[in-house]
Records
---
Amino acid sequence: MIRALVCSFALLCSLCAAHTARGADQLSPAPQVTAAELARALRDISIDPQQTFRVRDLTLTRGDIAIYLTEGILSFVTPVMGHCIAAVFTTAGVDAGDAEIILLPPQRSERASLASFIHTPNLDEHLTSAVFLFTDDTTNELLTQIRQAPLRKAPELAADMSSQFNPFVRHMSAGVDIRLIQSLLDNHKLDRGLFYSAIVGRELGTFDVMYEPDEFEPVAAGRPLPAGAAHKGFQLWTTFRPRHKAAQLTPPVNLSNFSIDALIHPDLSMSVTARFGATPAFDGGRVISLGLSPRLKVLSATINEKPVEVFQRDTFGMFDVKSSGTFLLISDVPLASGNDYKVEVRYQGSVIRQAPDGSYFVDERNAWFPYSGPVLANFDLTFRCPERLRLVSTGEPVSDEVVNGIRIVHRKTQVPERLAGFNLGDYSTVVEEHGQYRVECYANTATAASLEKRKASETPPLTPSTGDALQSLPKETERILDDYTQRWVQLPIHSVAVSPISGYFGQGFPGLIYLSTVSYVREQDRPSQLRSARMDTFFSEMLLPHEVAHQWWGNVVSAANYRTEWLMEAMANYSALQFLERSKGAAVMNEVLDTYRGDLAKQENGKSIESSGPVDFGVRLEQTGDLLAWHTIVYEKGTWVLHMLRERLGDDGFAKMQVRLFRDFSAKPISNEDFRKAASKFVPAGQPDKSLTLFFDTWVYGTGIPSLRLQRAGRNLRLNLSGVDEDFAVDVALHCTSKGGKERVQWVRVSSGNNDLESPSGAMACQLPASNEFLYSQ
């Protein structure tokens, strides 16, 4: 249980960037204490006999979390550098001992998510014990209530409490030491500190509930998957913003102007020096929290050329495999808000490996350099690698030379970017200047040689294809760039590089595209399991346009948070689908949409894949290792959502909406609500739901694919809607024909069950929308 609770909190912290606020009633940072000293102190905390009480009717509320300590024993732990950061509650040995925790998610989708795990939409659990970790005002709140009640100290109970809970509390605090140390050193307001509760419930067993008020979604509840589960990870039941929560506060630090010098050794390990500006948003803290791949070890750091302490774990929990680790820089003096501090971080490790086919694979494409929350910065990148390798990265090429057997590649961005990536290999290269763009295309020489050798052994010998792909790839990339630029806006960058990556996926970084090596191979030369009409469409027709589209969707316009990531993927995918439609006709597009519909309806464990969660859950759909659900909902249902929106707005309105998004959100990230408001401006007159509120509630924030059946009921119509929850509602466009053959659209709002509709005046016949216009089944 100890390990489970510690690991669960570690994951919850990894889902959130640590944002803190400052002001009156602050938690004063520990004076001149080091992070190492704080970590040692956390390992030594114990039950405090002089702060052990028999308690009754104590209450704690955090956002939409309510905790009632009805009857039991409460013991605070010994202070850490003057701050009490933990308390333990138990009902053991107490007649009529009881406590209760209540959590009421405000959104329908979050209630549904919670119910899918604990079989009830609201959490109301009686508990036998709990451990609370906090850097807010919990100590004062509880002590104030204790002083106001006829309660007494019970130091005689501390011995039993200590033997039972001391090891548990120490393991917990050690497991989250980075987050606690950061909070003890950041000078935050007391009402902005973290509050974490590890609960042992009577019915649910162990689970965790956390409140961090300055996070995008302050409330989170769930528990780690059990040992032996097929997938290691955290089972996140629900996470949300409380009902009465003010706008998210300013991130604590802004990073800018990266200058990164990376040496890639012959064994593919890296030694890196990263220099950048860091501007704190608030006064008085001594800590800067940064993210970096757990594969990389920080060696040293300076702030304004003065060495500072670095705190980074030597080992990482099982949840760190999929999330970047956090490390702290601790200044010996308070940092002032608005000042631009010059930070240097030196680190080393291995984020590159060689694949079985001889190519090279960059594992940590997002976290190979220090970051803190959303970044929009200039990057000056210098890479040194063995001469035999070629390297490509984000940015415009400055130089590429070989000195004493070392290849030195220098690239710089022309405009601020949200992230920077790199790729390397034994490449063949083609570079073409094409109007406003410079197109670079790279192919693995080793993979090409292996393929040609295999072909030569065939009877009869197969003709080469990889070389042909390298020759055709620039032209195809240029064609896609021209198409998107004409329809949207010109990219703010000049160079766009396409480089191979082993696997069945692609990824689009600013100016750098990772393209599956499968796309480099002709359809007839691919492995048999990748040779089908659907696979051919994906690898040959969709993947490159999708990744090129990310130069706009994801790099020019970016998501404000994880709930909007679906929009970046869906926009890129739908853009590729529209490109396919313009190239090969609507029938091909409709075939892909129909395939997506079938994927969403497929059954897993007695439920459709689509019912796993709404598109705005994004990466949460991966939490049990179900990549299929994540991909199907985010990419395929997301594509359907945009296709239905296009049907509502019309081709011209949809295209104008996209251009408006580039105009309004190139300098700030977009949220789902931003998207809804922007799209609503292009809803044609005469349509219902001008604000698109119902559209988003149904298709973005909700689940369900309705079955529709339209029948004539006397002079009227009856539309039966089934296969969805009782509260499902949707606007449907009926296509009606008059006696004279004139067609018109009649919008009707329907909900689950039979909907009796008045037949439109003069209409002889009405039909449901075509299957390629609307996501439903018959």
---
Amino acid sequence: MVFEKFSERMQKLIEKKGFLEPTLPQKMGIPKISAGKNVLIIAPTGIGKTETAMLPLIDKIFVNQSKPIAMLYITPLRSLNRDLLDRLCWWADNLDLDISVRHGDTSQSERNAQREMPPHILITTPETLNAILTGKKMREHLKNVKHVVIDEIHELVESKRGVQLSLILERLREFSGNYQIVGLSATVGSPQLVADFLAKNIEIIRAETEKEYDIKVETPKPSAKDRALSEDLFIGLETTARLRRLRELIENHKSVLTFTNTRETAEVLSSRLRKLDKELKHAVHHGSLSKERRIKSEQDFKSQALKSIIATSSLELGIDIGSIDLVVQYLSPRQVTRLIQRVGRAGHGVGRVSKGIILSGDEDIFESTIIASNAREKKLEEIKIHDHALDVLANQIIGLAIDEYDILDEKIYHIVKRAYPFRNIKKDELKEIIQFLSAMRMLWLDESPSGIRLRRSKKAWQYYFDNLSTIPDTFSYRVVSIIEGEPIGNLDEAFVAEHGQSGNKFVFSGRAWKIIQIDGNKVIVEPVEDMESAIPAWEGELIPVPFKIAQDVGVLRRFISKNFEDKNLVNLLKVRYGVDSNSANEMIALVKSHKETNTVPDDKKFLIENYKDFIIIHSCCGSLVNATVGRYLSSIMTAETGVSVNMKTDPYRIMLQTTAKKEDVKRILENAKNIEAILKLSIERSSMFKWRFMHIARRFGIVSKRAKYEKINTNKIMMMYENSPAYKETLREVFLEKMDIEGAQDVLEKIKNEEIKIIIESGLSILGKNGLVQQFSEVMKPLMPEKEIFNAFRRRLLSTRVRILCTNCGEYNLIQSVRNVDKNPECPKCASRLLAVLPRNALDADKIVKKKLAKKLLNEEETKRWVTMKRSSDLVVIYGRKAVIVMAARGVGPQTAARILAMLHHKNEEFYKDILKAEKDFARTKVYWK
């Protein structure tokens, strides 16, 4: 048995813990780790991966009496650090070893203690390791590192955090020598790539056979009771059926973890569940909530004070949050890796089955079916890494210059080249970054016979510590409805950067809104009914659906369409795809309904159809390929027609709002060329590119971390740094994360070769309608009638508090609600009706009036204000309370009020409509007034 290889003391501890038999990863991994090999262990959640790595390494440190810091345990999340400390302290304490955590929240006293008396094992994050590498004393302790364990490696590899970590580990190797490295992960789509990323000589240990997954797709059938409930809950019938089933599953299990794809869906599900059952104890967990609230939810769930948590990806990683017996995925998880990771949270323990149910419906069933089927067969998505991330490289070059004063460029080149993401870097590319940093006054360069010597400047220190993290610092915009004048929620900076132009429509808080203006950190909006061209505010949160999944959905559609007449089709689907009867019947019914009017689009057929001014291209090509082809199409069509084209895509459709014809789309697709060059031009002009450029400019030190996005002249900075490493990095990042050029070119080539057929048909099919509207059905509230909009606006105006000041005597000066103003108001002091309507904060207005009445000379500013007050009071004399109502509106002064009042409206609604229009005009032009 592998435990017999440990020291006697460790064997006793293992016995005390009750570890009778080693798990599969322990059997396979411990001998290799004990032998000092570099290993990547891939094993499901809950079967002892952490102990596989830690027991042999802790025992080695104990037996060899290794000097601290002997081991680094690196995790992507601070919460994982807390969890690990609790788990590992018992072992360390019993072996007289010190273990502690270091991250951004670590107190100064704890940091000082770690510096003076370092622990044998330090649990940390990549960002914190980046910081402590530069400290003289900490670097002395880090020279003793013999082992590095990286947990949840899959979470790091695909991001810039992984690139940063790979360079940090090479810097560490410079002064600690050739340490042993162990990577841990539950889900890896490209094991060899991850292994190469970690180290050159590394063994992959796949201990996956022991874990069983029971994953089902359920499509709850709406009942008569659901119909009544749906009206009460203000949600669709199918959504109600899913909600009712979710409640049943929570009630019938001990602890249920429910995952949704967006924060908005999580919040809506939770609010509707509360309305459905006030006694059902559950909580919401996502990244927008405070840390305290998230921790409380985790603790309450662990102690079983809560039956369920409804979470986004915030609870995907391996934090132990209790004995979960079921994971529910609400609608498709969009990727197989995500599903495996999430379902793995249930049955957290050796020999336990991880049970998961995808609650699906409508068109979503196809995708959920494919993902569940691939999950059962362990077909995971391949990993994409950030090769050549130049902003990360720039920061780490400064790190190397801090580590070693007077460092040679040749030495930097060899260190950088050892890191997997920079394995192909050329000397010229590195030289360009060094020269750029020198031009930024971060480095002083000195040419010598042995090469270029680099010395860091004082400015370099500030830049380095400002950019310890590769995670962008973002802030939220407050969304304010112009109707009620109240905030309705917050939008992420990324969404506003990409879609925040005046006139754009988006779905948020269950309704469609149109942007009037971005005013500082506020987005001023009005409600609209135009759902088709609205963009979901949660779009940025959605995980992209891979090309392969979307293609498999096309294969499934084709299979149903081809075997349509087969009476045994339901059983065929159940056997081939493992779905229940109801899901099979729903898919067949949807294909049947579509086939009655149109050709069924699949992996080998594109369907182009139209509705109003929309052209819908049905293409089973996934999120990134469709986004790439869609942007290419809209660029060409805009150039041809001279009119901008609105575009919306999902994994199965490209939707264009345009004056062009369907035949034009077919022609452009069949004759596509210069795709990358056209997309580069299109992307460079986009607000999304500008937003990303500013983040990368911060990471290069071009722009201060503290600079506010809206106060920066982005266009000027972009012009100054065009063709710089920062500009190149922005393009590389956008093309990697938002586009799939290679996939798009492959698809367009297949169209050219007629391997993919394009079919043009008229009208709007079922699948076309789904694309335009159905993606919002989960979170949409009933449309607000126009009358209700004006009633809400009227209520807001009447409850607005204004200052009423008598311009005749200057003595009457009162703040009151508009609704409390008399029909024909007059001054109680002098009986005059010359009453000016002013904002509440016009505190010194009465002094100006009294100065004028005393015939004293007014200055230019006072004269201007007096004229405005006089005009305002003249309107009150003529129109009474009506004038007060108009001037209570935001940005409506006497001049605009006079124009509105002169219209002599016959209907109240028309009167308020014109006031609202004036408010919107002010909000739209306010930025220019400034």
---
Amino acid sequence: MHTKLEHIIGKATSFIYHHPKKVILILMLILAFPISHLPQIKMDTSTEGFMHQDDPVLLAYNKFRDAFGRDEMIVLGIKNEDIFSLKFLKQLKQLHTDIETKVPYVYKITSLYNVRNTRGEKDTLFTDDLLDPFPKNKADVDAIKKRVHASHFYKNLLLNQDEKMTMIVIQTDVYSHKGENALSTEEAFDEAGFLEGIEASAMSSEGKVFLTDKENNELIATVEDIIKTYQDKGLEIYLSGSPVINNALKTHMMIDMAKFMSLTFVIVFSFLYFIFRRWSAVFYPLLVILFSLLTTVGTMAWMGVMFKIPTQIVPSLIIVVSVGATIHILSIFFDRFNQSKDKKTSLIYSFQHSGLAIAMTSITTAIGLGSFAGSELAPFADLGIFASLGVMVSLLLTLTLLPALLTLTNLQPKETNPAGNIDKFMKKLAVYPVKYTKHILLFSTLFLLISLFTATQLVPSYNPLLWFKKGEVHRVATQTIDQNMQGTTSVEIVIDTQKENGWADPTKLKALDALSKKIASYKDSYISVGKVVSLADIVKETNKALHANNETFYTIPKEKNLVAQELLLFENSGSDDLEDVVDSQFSKVRMTIRVPWVDAMQAKDFMAFIQTQATQTFPHQQVVVTGMVPLLINTFSNAVYSAIKSYFIAGLAITLMMMLILGSMRLGLLSMIPNVIPIIAGLFLMYLADMALDIFTLLIGSVAIGMAVDDTIHFMHNFKRYYKAYGDSQKAIEETFFTTGKAMFVTSIVLASGFLTYAISSMSSIQNFGILTASIILFALISDLFLAPALMVLVAKRGWIK
């Protein structure tokens, strides 16, 4: 079968040699359509973007946003030694007013300047602003301070415990200003415009478009400009909140992608010229890479798929994988061409020699990456689909465009071999697997056992805040606000009685209040609840105000008609805060739990506690827990499940491929040992470097096994060829190392160098991904230069290769 396939590849190469221009024209016509869509590509860094549009967790979250608005807050933490001074309050008023008048897409702004001040005078309820009328002197400020101290509402919501920090909370519009009136998903696409970055996961259940990434970025940019003005005046302001974090991640991602691609191209360019010392051997692989990359990204744009945080590795991945195949071909071709001085026979020989192996390696790499295609996480699925597509496009161009370009080029043979030193090194290296077979096998076994043990010590983690480096401004701002205010993100509980005026019931309100107190008192090693806000707080405040502001009446009234009356009074008092905690039918209530930004894995116990308490408290009502924290937990849980599933699929599929390639079940199973050990070695490195098992490192297994297997295929395929020719393990290893070994060595160095460009990333998670992937590629090279030959020596002695 191998011989027949190699013969077909040889005939195809011969056809390309005689019709190079036709081949290039056909390729350009095929690629023109996807490449033409390239300008439409967009980015999405939102947490919702990690989920498929039919994910139940996302659907519940979108339903919540439809009912109560956007839960994601933009928060400004303002530090001052004397919050209750006339000077500071004037600055706060001006800052609040500037944000209110200048920032677009804002639904509501809350600060000490305009927060409600619920109070009663005789039988009248007032819910005016805390600083209305604005204080004129110290006595007025002292009176305001007294009111703040007498209230349960402000602490840890807008003012920290030691009163050295206050917050301004910005709630943005729920819906985009461009698709707000659309009645269906199709109309929303037409209204908002696909080029604005709208995708189906950004649609509400009513077909409206949620606030777009572009609008969110415009909003944050305006806030940042305003803040800078006040910071220049000496005001200490920290900006955070999940919209700000997501926007910062997007900014870092765009900068990093440009750096990665530029550096990777420079590295590939340098290595190719160093090895071949021919401009054709530099530019033609770059053309293969460029067209593969443009076709892949253009197809993403055509299909409406955005770049997300995990998929930012796709371009660099295609670059480094593409160059490997071209190096294998060019290495064999120029060695042969320099000797024979016949371009046609050299082309046919090089593609017959390595074309099948390259096809197999590309397929196994695509399988490794494609194992993510069915992932529960949308960007993982995108990565699986489009990285695999890029690899296969690269294979097509390597087998067609590359020989066509070489045919059209006026090449001259060279007497000297620029890579001669590598040839000598590989020839010397071939001795060791035969001479030290037992030592290599023993060391590999011990290393495998140690690595497996350390792998069990790794701790899973999902905290996008820690993707930023220490000292990064957004990370510092979030941690500072959390330390002082205990809450830059939130968990939302929606309790639905499914009955009109269901929450005008004192029994249910008392149960809601008891639940609030339980949750507010929760504390574990990782989470301390900052604030719990619900309808019960408004009812208690109102009851207290209507009883001469007497603290003993900060309770839920016992009579149902009294509750109804107080809620009606509050609603008619001029405050719109009621709509934030209960729907218009009084059937559905919202409880907001403000918590610090925490690792999703560290919040699992807290989430289980909330779910259990809420369900037990309201067994006959519909309880839904949603918000940013549940979304993060769901994202990582799906990532773990997807990774395990993809590892199984990739491992099984690649093992079957190896059996097919090597024509033997035993050899196929044995060949997987040099492929698995590098990945386990990567886990050992993670343990030594104290790296977390996060959403990026979870990707490495399937990505790495797809690439690590390439060298194994090249080695095993050619070892069998030469062993059948010579019947001698030593001679077969020498010949394999001298031909394929050189290309294996160079491609591994290029691949590792390409991924090491990630080390300059501004995000620590991307740095870890690059360093680990590069390390695994080098581990795979060592494994294929020592362990794989040692295993083949062993099986040859046992007579497994006829």
---
Amino acid sequence: MTQLARDTLRPLPPGGYPAGSFHSLPALEAMGLGRVSRLPVSLRIVLESLLRNADGERVAEAQVRALAAWRPRQPRSEEIPFVVARIVAPDSSGVPLLADLAAMRDAAQRMDRPPGIVEPVVPVDLVVDHSLVVDRAGSADALLHNMQLEYRQNEERYRFLKWAAGAFKGVRIVPPGTGIVHQINVERLARGVWLRDGVYFPDTLVGTDSHTSMVNGIGVLGWGVGGIEAEAGMLGQPVYFLTPDVVGVELAGALRPGVTATDLVLTVTETLRRAKVVGKFVEFFGEGAASLPTADRCTIANMAPEYGATAAYFPVDRNTLDYLAATGRTAQEVAALEAYFRAQDMFGMPRRGDLDYSDEIRIDLSAVVPSVAGPSRPQDRVALAGLKAHFGRLLATPVERGGLVRAQDRAADDGAATAAASPGTADAGATHAGAAGAADAAAPLRDGDIVLAAITSCTNTSNPGVLLAAGLLARKAVEKGLRTHPRVKTSFTPGSRVVDAYLAAAGLQPALDALGFQVVGHGCATCMGSSGPLPPAIEDDIVRNRRVAVAVLSGNRNFEARIHQAVRANFLMSPPLVVAFAIAGRIDFDPDTEPLGTGADGRPVYLRDVWPSPDEIAAAMPHAGNPEDFRRLYADFTEGDALWRALPAAAGERYAWEPQSTYLRRPPFFDDFQPEPRPLAPLRGARALAILGDSVTTDHINPAAAIKPELQAGAYLLSQGVAPADFNSYIARRSNHEVMMRGAFAHVRLRNLMVPGTEGGYTLHQPDGARMTIYDAAMAYARERVPLVVLAGEEYGTGSSRDWAAKGPALLGVRAVIARGFERIHRSNLVGMGILPCQFTGADGVAALGLDGSETFELPGIERGVAPGQALRLLIRRADGSQAEAEVLARIDTPIESTYFRHGGILPYMLRKLLDPNHEEAIA
């Protein structure tokens, strides 16, 4: 601890909590270090971490002084080493993370060092929540069936997790069936403040899921990082980032009756994505923010990745305290949180002018209208009243311009599709699902028919306001004799078991059951591609007739082919709207003028007839705020059910890899590990593996969906004796690099501009121009010793924080990604795997430079190392022998990233540090 840190220790005022001290931020201002009281609250929490951890090694006193003197609009070049209190992970990224640590232990053993040197020093909670598949839905036995299937498909992964819980002292496993990591984090794991060694400090974290930011809604600062970066954090490395800009978002006014938190968050997402807040902190303030229930704040904070922000922070105030008390936190915990934030002068929602922000944006809550977003991006909001016309335009617009018309569809002579392109219907009541008995599930599909309707995702199932509204709407619909369309696969996946308890207590679950929204599991499912199978006849109709089928869900992501590979239009909406559209059965109807269906009395029933009033929702709300429900259901939340307890658990410091396993293979990242980093190889004569457009997501780079037999990952599994019924998803197979290499860039909607007019993981091998899969091309280039690059447009790597979107390309031989722009987490993941992200400057890009994939590329000088923000020359040699040149910016943003890159990535850097901790100067 530096002298500055010692000088700021103050006793926390006495109260109903244990005595302790804290590092006073007001004391820093009194010492003249800066106008700390004017800093955004989120930055002050980072500043406290720097101050408390200032030891002259990991954190220097100069870094404390630099952040204390932050100015809202100054250039940013300082690197912040943020030491977090804990780390969270879902199993989707957590299993590969632990597999990497197990492989590091094997490498340590090979280097004659104790395997136990690889041990998390920061507490880690891993929640098993991404392995659920909605195989069965719409029935009373769906929950049990899906849980049994989950264990059957993932038994080996789960046995590995039980081994890890015993082998790594700092790892706690939350078993399947408990809920979604973010909702569990908000309802149980988050502490508000910690007391350690007599010192109080704020709860902070990073998580390996991009939606970790949801916890910002209760005043806990945290955000998503890639699994590679989280591994370093677990092993004691600070989370490094550039000093951020902080955008203040003033929420003014109040939501109108009938407008939901989902409508608000879709409006916020649209607004902030347009404002280009990528990589920045967002902090909410104002009277509207103060009036929002904490659950609504969490809904907004959850979708920070969708608008690109690192964090989306709501300061601690009275609403925060009330929420923590209602969710079962003790009076002592709540009192300590209030006392700490008051002592730091950080309690309460700031008003306009209270704090200094880099920029300010104002959102009027009273202007928010009922909304949905789609068909493939969460920022593409459309007012509910304009949805019918919007969908009609999408059916007439090419995919390349954001529509739903594909090249192969335009080329097809499909008269039926032409007839279906007019979405209006004169007899809406008779053709909608709610027209009791009139609909036929076997009738041919039309463009716009809904085939999936899911109340899902941590975004909304943590919010009792919208879930109670869904239950109330369902009850009114059932009372009027409406039913969901028999074609629609309906499902409900709550984010925690508490949701089941309060819907049952409110008497609303039976109505949801009657409409097919039985609970099918507790975890992330439809929103990340585990929606399960559609009836074969429906899927065959979609594929054979090129139908634009629709999914509606209350999730946070709707990227191409993410929800279901056969479904081309996906719309995000509130849970009550999901229920309503499941009844209607079509996306292209006007809920103001057309009925949902026909009631039992023969009369048309409109959305307004079943929409719950604010008073009805308020009357049901007390059922969701019973702290005893939270205490009871979280009392033994790490014990698991009988299925979990029955799993055997191996013991020992090292994991016994099974050579024939198709789920768990020792990660290859340390196979040729050496104590000293090899010299960086030059990048000359590189070929383009793919040329991609704008808004390429990590789904496109590393699919999450079910593995299909016709794709190369499926062919590999078949060769290993795995039946197609047991393929599972790419997410479940993430600890088998053979599967994941074959899955890289294998997304069914990937559009590689080198192969125009096609979708899927195809490219041209050069110089012969042979068309082949991306995997086959990469293997051919590896045999030929040709390095590879990927070229792309704006917003490369949006979406999930999956490290395999960097691991996969690295194993395929990709050395650099050159794009117009990067999303924050994916850029970091690329550096973490030793891939150089470079950004075109000025107007340069694929189109401006006339690139078609026949060229070779060179980045001179990178073998000497790359400094943060270094300008590089991209040399381009065309097939005709002519040459071109472009300046690109190395998106290595901080000094530590330069070190990571020189070591070949974060993982080898951390292993070298663990093997030889006394020679830090040789590493840094």
